[in-house]
Structure formats: C-alpha cells, structure tokens
Amino acid sequence: MALEEYDCIVLGAGIQGSFTAYHLAKSKKKTLLLEQFVLPHSRGSSHGQTRIIRKAYKEDFYVHMMEESYELWAQLEREAGVKLLTRTGLLMMGPEDGREFRLVKSTLQKNRIPAVVLQRHEFSQHIPNVNLTPGDGALVETTGGVLYADRAVRAAQMVFQGHGGVIRDGEKVVEIVPGNVVTVKTGSGMYRARSLVITAGPWANPLLMHTGLRLPLKVLKINVCYWKEKVPGAYSVNSRFPCFIQMQPKEAENDIYGLPSNEYPGLMKVCYHTGSETDPDQRDRQTDKSDVEILSRYIARCFPGLVPVPAVVESCLYTVTPDCHFVLDRHPAYSNIVIGAGFSGHGFKLSPIVGKVLSELSMGQAPSYDLSPFSIRRFHTLPKSGL
User: Fold this and answer.
1) Is residue 19 part of a domain?
2) What is the distance of C-alpha 133 from the center of its chain?
3) Among 89, 81, 13, 79, which Cα is nearest to 47's?
C-alpha cells in the first residue's frame, strides 16, 4: 500500500472541508481532501440547491464574521466564474416583545446592518401573500438572500484543485494514528501529513474516537419540504419574494424558515429548524414526520398562497451542539489535529470564514477571529485517560 505525504489532510468534502482545503491550497500547502462517498453525494449536510445567507443574528461575533464571509463568497464567484448568490432580502418575523426578536433587531442596529422595520399596517403592502401573526414584529435585512449550495461546493473544490489540491473520494477512513506526523488509513490507501483537519459533519464523532475524543454532538434528520404555489411565481425569486425566518411560531418551539421558489419551479422551500435524532448511516430508517404536520398548520395559517401539503420531501442532516454554536478548535491532546464540527444547521453561509480559521489553526497561525465561543473546553470534554 503506497504511503503518500502531504502538508495537511482534510477529512470530509462538504462545504466546510472544501473551503478549508481551498484556503490551504491557496497558502501553497500540499493538501489532500478525503471523502468517504463518491462525489457528488446527498448523504451529509452540504447538498441541495439553496441555503439562506444573512447577517441577521443575535450574536455580534457571527455578524462580524459574516462581513468578511460576503467578501469571500464574492471572491469565489470571481475565481470560479459562477453565480453563487442572489440577494432577495431576509424577512424576520417573531413576537415583537419576545427576547429573540428584540435581540436580532438590536444587533442589526448596533452593527449598522441595512434593515427595514415593517409596521403592521404596511406589512401586506411590502410582503404580499403572507399573514403576519398578531403580536409579531417584522423586519427585512436587505443584504440577505439565497446561496446556491451544490454549485458552491463544486466551485470551492474546483479552485482548490486549480491550486494543486488533491481530492480522493469513495475512501472511508478506517484508522487515524496521531503523532507529530498524522497517519490516516482508508480502505484503499495510507496517507501522512503534518496536520489533520476533521470536517466530517455527522461522522465527526466516529472519526474523533480514533483520537480518544468524543464531543456532545447530536445528529438530526431534517425533512426538507417544498410546497406548491397556488399561483405560480407568487413566492418566487423572480417576483423578489424574500427568504424568511419565523421565530417562535405558534405551532412549535423551534424556528421555521423558507426560501423563495427557485430550484423546483412553482415550489417554495419551507422547513422546520430541527428534526429527529438519527444515526447518519441509518438515516433512511428515521421516518418521523411530526415536523411536516407542524409546517402544514403554519402554512395554512400564514402562507395562504401555498398548498398546505408538501409536494416534495427530501432530507438533510444537522450536527448540533448543545448551544448551537460551532466547534472550531485544536484537539485538546494533539495540537496538529484541528476540528470543525457541530454547524447546527446554520453554518453553510459562514463556511468561507470557517475554512479560513481552520486552515490557520492547522498551519499553526493565530486565527483571524476570536474562537472562544467555539472552544471545545466550553463542554468540559477531555480526551480519555492515557492520551
């Protein structure tokens, strides 16, 4: 079995791993991007046509990261020669006196993010075909929009390869041997590198177990639902309908989000921001549809122009931390093993920055951002004894 040597190996070729590899190759590091499935695939968290991009967050640190993230998305568009982003605006709705809505509103104002607060009497004039819940406030973050997900993953990988990066897909990792030089064994090869980055999404913990570490990550299966427009185009990108997030809906405890009809003509994507716990290798056995019932009730009440029965149901996986913030850190026992995990269903838009800081950590550099919100130590998780 041939032994190939690299400066860095990145495990997992979703959007986070692809951007990490992209930054490493642009820094002239000999980099291998390893993926267990044959590319492209739909078994993880980065597939599908669209994701929301936004600066509307409660936390200042995400807002600050998103400023540069928009710049890096535009840079990738130029490098790859493909359109990756359409600005539609993002409609935020939620109880006007609720803590969550007020926090987002104040964070946007404090950071001078362009946003328009919609008064109830003018809401339907600006946002047709949506019923605003009594007691809810509404605002539109004008910089928000739609990211083209599959296209983005391909673009990052293409630029990575253009800088000399190597992708090997269909290679499942069977062993990781830590050390000053890390050895990674797959079913068909053995690779060594001075540093290793693990961005394996739902498979993060199975890989970390090779290094004696387990993080408090839960894997959830999300039903990705598409709903038919009664009048074609009423909620479309072309009619300038915005993406939306409904905070604290009456029907449920978690947010509901949606994107204008785009990937499937005449179908709007509306999803519940959580799902049922699953084993990523047994996901198809998880058939819980309670979230679809919640969405049907919400759509019947708030989106009168949609048929309240989904026309298409696909699936995606979230890997969720207890506080829904990411893990971006070095391994507690092995400083040349870097971990990016737990993106909790909102990490795609931040992947250019995630890739940047993970590449910096793997090169032994100080990260460009304060990573304390993303530290492993916040979980009080330590490696097993003996490491």
Assistant:
1) yes
2) 28
3) 13
- Tracing tokens 């990738």 back to the chain, one arrives at 76
Same domain, 315 and 240: yes
Whether 131 and 245 map to the same domain: the answer is yes
Tokens of 246: 């409904």
- Domain membership of residue 283 (yes or no) is yes
Q: Which residue has the tokens 């250019």?
A: 352
CA distance readout (Å), 45 to 51, 62, 92, 95, 200: 11, 20, 24, 30, 10
Predicted local distance difference test score (pLDDT) of residue 42: 62
For residue 245, being part of any structural domain is answered with: yes
CB 236 within 8 A of CB 363: no
Q: What is the per-residue pLDDT across 148-192, written as a single tens digit (0 to 9) for each?
A: 999 999 999 999 999 999 999 999 999 999 999 999 999 999 999
Query: What average pLDDT does the chain have?
Result: 93
Rounded to whole angstroms, what are the CA distances from 77 to 20, 119, 155, 187, 359? 17, 36, 8, 35, 20
Residue 37's domain comprises: 3-46+150-214+323-379
**Residue 253's domain is classified under what CATH number?**
3.30.9.10
Q: Which of 320, 345, 367 is the C-terminal boundary of a domain?
A: 320
Q: Are residues 173 and 314 in the same domain?
A: no
Under the banding of pLDDT at 50, 70 and 90, the label for residue 40 is low
User: Are 229 and 126 contained in the same domain?
Assistant: yes
Scored b (16 or more CB within 10 A) or e, 251-274 reads bbebbbbbbbbbbeebbbbbbbbb
Q: What is the pTM of this model?
A: 0.94
Question: Counting Cβ atoms within 10 Å, is residue 38 exposed (0-12), middle (13-18) or buried (19+)?
Answer: exposed
In a domain, 107, yes or no: yes
CB 341 within 8 A of CB 326: yes
Of 149, 157, 147, nearest to 12 (Cα)?
Answer: 157
Domain count, the chain: 2
Catalytic residues: 47, 50-51, 269, 273, 316, 349
DSSP, collapsed to helix, strand or coil, labels residue 319 as strand
> CA-CA distance, 204 to 263, in Å (whole number)?
30
